[in-house]
Amino acid sequence: MSFPAFGAILFDLDGVLVDSEVLANQVWIAVLAQHNLHLSPHAFMKGSIGQTLTGVFDWLHAEHGWAKPDSFESRLDEQLLQAFETVRALAGAEHTLRSLQAAGMPTAIVSNSQRDRLHLKLRAAGLNDLTNGHVYDPEHTEGRGKPFPDLYLLAAQQLGVPATRCLVVEDSVPGVQAGLAAGATVWGLCAGEHMHAGSASELSDAGAARLLHSHGELQQALAALGNGSEEQLKMR
């Protein structure tokens, strides 16, 4: 398997490699309700997906006039860590990573998740041994997560590949924006349980060059990289 169009593939974590978005959504909604803010699953998912923790709090304050009480964050963290012990990899995600590793393709995981939660999810999903040490979160970039390009630029730099030769796989609008701002090609993956009827169009409108609906489709698309140029692949 060869990959003439790209020198590295950079993956988001939540909703791309692990099916954690709905799980996290349920915890957030429950803990917010305990602190006098009641949101529907759809409303919270729409406003929070792909955001940093700070970004979620900023959105809650701007959109709902809610400021977190002192006790909120510790309670949330406790509940999320418990929930993420049960998280599972998306179907086919492990095979995607193993195939790329076997082919010698540099990869990295680039997430807005907090570091302790990120590594817990990787361990629980059985993906921890497939990262090659290239796992990046906002602590690496002084808190500047997606939609800023910093994390993707850092991952590309650490892999020794220009960001313009990287393929980013994302499931959220902030993630797509971050990848594009870094100069990478971005594909949208609509495979997680959290995806809804409008998800594909949202990713496309944000600039995703291609939309895929499973890791099986992603694997086929990556295998096809040896048979066409980057521009041809963008247009399929």
TrEMBL record:
GO molecular function terms attached to this record: catalytic activity; metal ion binding
Required co-factors: Mg(2+)
InterPro entries tied to this protein: Beta-PGM-like (IPR051600), HAD-like_sf (IPR036412), HAD-SF_hydro_IA (IPR006439), HAD_sf (IPR023214), PGP-like_dom2 (IPR023198)
Keywords: Magnesium, Metal-binding, Plasmid
Domain of life: Bacteria
Family (UniProt): Belongs to the HAD-like hydrolase superfamily. CbbY/CbbZ/Gph/YieH family.
Protein name: Putative phosphatase
